[in-house]
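User: My instructor asked us to take a sequence, write out its structure as tokens, and then describe one feature of it. I'm not sure where to start. Here is the sequence I was given:
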Amino acid sequence: MTNPPAQKTPQRPQSKAAPASDHAQVIAHPPLIYLAGILVGLGLDAIWPAPQLSAMVQYVLGGGLFAAGLAAVAASALTFRRAGTSVPTNTPTTALVSRGLYNYSRNPIYLSMTLAHVGIAAAVDSPWILGMLPIVLVIIRFGVIAREERYLEAKFGDAYRDYKARVRRWL
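Assistant: Let's start with the prediction itself. The structure tokens for your sequence are:
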């Protein structure tokens, strides 16, 4: 008895993606770090509520700050797209962006997320969410920004060092 001829398994085309190490190796996606701070703050607020603001201040201040943060994130992401590079920290950076909000801050997306975080804290009247922000910012500074800066300096060399000398990290 003869066996039927073996069928070839179709091979997947080789990906032309950058090597797995061609990104900043941050400790977590920055939006998740901010979200974790908000969730911990909400949990603490559920255990020990400490309302401070009137409803009018909550919604006007909170909504305004959140909207401003969201608009700045969108503007920054659009600047990245126009430069032909991606926003997520787990993907390769293909261009050094120094236009738009990046002309004033090396980290406008993190500033924008910080603004949105404060807006959420105000909107839900939670001093605990606001109190989590310094912890979030320390994690962002050392677990994200420091790693991004090492990656960008290694990838873009003098161009990134010149940009760093010209533009402040935050404002």
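For the description part of your assignment, you could build on this observation: The radius of gyration is 22 Å. Try explaining in your own words what that tells you about the chain.
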